[in-house]
Amino acid sequence: MLKTKIIKPTTSAYEYPLLIKQILLSGPRYEPQQEIVYRDLFRYTYCELYERICRLANALTKAGVKPGDTVAVLEWDSHRYLECMFAIPMIGAIIHTVNIRLSPEQILYTMNHADDKLVLVHSDFVPLMAQIKDKLNTVEGYWLLTDNPSDDLPNSLSFQGEYEALLAESATTYDFPDFDENSVATTFYTTGTTGNPKGVYFTHRQIVLHTLVISLSLGSLAGQPLMNSDDIYMPITPMFHVHAWGVPYAATMMGAKQVYPGRYEPDLLIKLQQKEKVSFSHCVPTIVNMLLNSEAAKQADLSGWRILIGGSALNKGLAVAAREKGVILTGAYGLSETCPLLSVAYLNEKLRDLSEDEQIDFRIKTGIPAPLVDLAIIDEEGNHLAQDGLQVGEIVCRAPWLTQGYLKEEKGSEELWRSGWLHTGDVATIDTLGFIQITDRIKDVIKTGGEWISSLTLENLISQHPGVSEVAVIGVPHPEWGERPCALVVLKDKQIQDKDIQVHLQQFVTQGKIHKWAIPEVIEFVDSIPKTSVGKIDKKKIRAKKAH
C-alpha cells in the first residue's frame, strides 16, 4: 500500500464508533409518532419502539447477558424480532438469528456451534426446543415469545419468563455504551451443498455501512426509487435470513412505517398490504408467485406495490404477470456472506425513456454494483475478464460490509477469500452499461457436448409461456452428451403438453438466444417444485431425486 500522511486526532477529540445504536437514534428524531405494526394484533410508535428496546436491554442485562455472549432468537417476522435486532447487539452481545426452517439436527448444530447462552423462542417452536434441549451445550435459559402473553408458561422448558412480562418489569431508559465498532453484532448460518451449515457473522461497523448504502441504493437514485421515509415497508423475507436483507435497519433509520406479518400466510399478506397501504417489500420469486396466485390477490388492487427481488433469478414471465396486477418487480443481487447487498437494477436516464416492456428486460437483471462495491468477473485461472456482455466468469467482489469469514472455519474462510476477493460461486456477464447478468451458479451450469447451457436462461424463457406458473431446470446425466437439460414445470393451464413448451422455445432458437440442443427433451409437469428454507428453488434436492 502507498504511504500516506496520517494526522492523529487531538486527545480531546471524540472517536466516533460506527455502532448499531446510531441507526436506532435517527428514526425517532424524524418520525417519533410513525408506527410499527405487527399483523392485526399490535401497533406502537417509534418513541415506544425506543422505550421497548431500552426495556429489553435492561431485561437482558438482568438475565446475565454480557458483552460477547450470544443470544438465539427463534421467531416469526415481528416487532419483537426488530427489537432484538437492536437491543442485543447494542449491549455488546451477539444476536444469533436461528433459521427456523432447518431440520432439528441442523438447528442443534448451529446453536451449539454459535455457543448460544440465552434462547428467545416463539411458542410455535417450543416443541422443537424441547426436543433438542438436552443436547444443547451452552444454553443457560429460555424466554417465551408469544402473541398470547396471558397464557400460562409451558413447562417443557425452564423459562425465565415471558417476553412482555419481562419488558414490563424493566426500566424505559438504558445508557447504551460505546465499544469497538469491529465487535461482532450478528451471526446466522447458511446451508451449502455439502456438510454442516456455515456460520456467517457481521460487525457493527459492517452493518452500519451496509445500512447507509442500502438506504442510498433504495431511496436516492432516480433510476430505482423503491423506499424512502414516506413509504410503508413490509418484509416478506425471513428476518433470520441476513437480517431480512438489512432493510429493517434502513427503514428504522429513515423513520418509515413498518409492518411485520408474522408467519407468512398469502391471504394475510395481501390483507396487510391493502389495509396498511404497503408500498415496498422484498422477497424471493417463489413468494411473489405465491402471492399473485392467492385468493386474496384476485380481488385486490395491488398497483403501487414495489417489490425488490433477490435470492434467485427474476424471470420475465413473473415480472410481466406481476405488472399485470400493478406490482413493479426490481432485481437485486447478494449473498448471505455479503450482508447481502451487492447490486440493484438501475435505470439510467436513457433507459427510463424506454417503453415499459423494454424496461422490464433491465429490471429483471441482477443490476449494477451498489456504491462502495468492487465487483468483477474472472476466469478459472483468476484473470479478470472484459465487461463486454459476452465474456462469462465467476463473480468476485469486495465491499466494507462483507463477512470476513465463516465462524470457526479457517479453511472455508480462506477458500471464500482466496486471492483477496470474496468468491460468490455465481457465473455471470457484465455488459458495457455495468449490468450484471447471472447466467448460473457454477454448480448449476449444464455441460452438454462441450457447450455450457445456462439453466437460468432456460427458466426465464420457459416462464414466458402463458401456461407456465413456475419452472426449474437442471442438468441430468446423458450417455452421449454428458448432460442434457431437464425442466420441471408447474402449469397454470393443465392442457399444456411438453411439445407446447418445446415449440415455444424454438422461437428463441430462431432468434439466436439459445442453441437447438438447449431445448429440453425431458419436461416433467409437477404440482410443486422443492424449495429451500428461505424459499429458493432447491436444485440440490431436485438433482438428488433424479439420481434415485
From TrEMBL:
Keyword Amino-acid biosynthesis: no
InterPro entries: AMP-bd_C (IPR025110), AMP-bd_C_sf (IPR045851), AMP-dep_synth/lig_dom (IPR000873), ANL_N_sf (IPR042099), ATP-dep_AMP-bd_enzyme (IPR050237)
Domain AMP-binding enzyme C-terminal: 458-536
Keywords, comma-separated and alphabetical: Ligase
Source organism superkingdom: Bacteria
Ranges for domain AMP-dependent synthetase/ligase: 32-407
GO MF entry, a single one: ligase activity
Flavoprotein found in the keyword field: no
A Pfam family this chain is assigned to: AMP-binding_C
Protein name: Fatty acid--CoA ligase
Organism: Zooshikella harenae
